């Protein structure tokens, strides 16, 4: 196995982008040694995104005998083949959690978003039935793969309208789709399915905070609506992103919002409190109490 890893590391980039067998031999040897693992599934999707080959043989994601990398490459090639996806996104087949995760990951990576919405009922049910570990692994992979690069991400973003939205959708699926669409479309998803979310699912809350970060960066007046959501996410272990698309989200906190944050500093991430304090200090000078003094006064860091 170490020899295979060394071979990959020693191979020139153009070869890695054109020779599927280098990757496939490693993945299949790993499957033979450790069995099917989610890490190998996600690696196969990375490989499919990177490698271009002229393989015209059809594959089935659920065919455990077929090489994993070849299956995901075929999923990429079949992005617009709705009949192939109908053979994959089938409720009865989703009893195999690992490969249902992989099918959903491939669909969210390559299938046109309007087709993903067509299968929203089946995918929603599959996501809601996943255990937390499987769900978090899938959500993390979708987030990472969607953000491989800012340039690739922006070029690959889709647009959807209110008319495209199904009547109902799992909040889990809504959060994943938000990574695939443009900002305005993410807002539509948020208002349809996520705005009133009061659950504790970290992956869902992370997607919500990213949508809000993009919203308030463009429209600071939305801070009023965003503030309770940011507090709820922080209470459940999800911090509002400090940077979004390379810009500081916190520079335009309105004065009244900054005051609200500093009045209840324990409800918000430290970097949000710090920026709010800086905004108040710049406007009102000594009237603003530094966050360090608040921490000392309220014994934030005192061991219980």
Note down, in words, how this protein is organized:
Helix content is 62%, strand content 1%. The protein has 304 residues and is mainly α. It has helices at residues 2-10, 13-16, 20-34, 38-50, 68-77, 82-88, 97-110, 113-118, 120-129, 132-146, 150-155, 171-177, 183-194, 202-218, 223-235, 255-263, 270-284, 291-297, and strands at 243-244, 247-248. Strand 1 and strand 2 (247-248) form a beta hairpin. Strands 1-2 form a two-stranded antiparallel ribbon. The protein has a domain at 1-145. The longest helix is centred in the C-terminal third of the chain and has 17 residues, at 202-218. The N and C termini lie far apart (48 Å).
Question: In short, what is this structure?
Answer:
This protein is mainly α and 304 residues long.
The count of β-strands is: 2
Structural class by secondary-structure content: mainly alpha
Q: What is the count of helical runs?
A: 18
Low-confidence residue ranges? 149-153
Strand content: under 5%
Measured on Cα atoms, how large is the radius of gyration?
A: 22 Å
Major sheet, described briefly? 2 strands, antiparallel
Shape: elongated
N- to C-terminal distance: 48 Å
Q: Report the helical percentage.
A: 55-70%
Q: SSE order, as H and E?
A: HHHHHHHHHHHHHHHEEHHH
Strand numbers in spatial order across the main sheet: 1-2
Mean pLDDT: 86
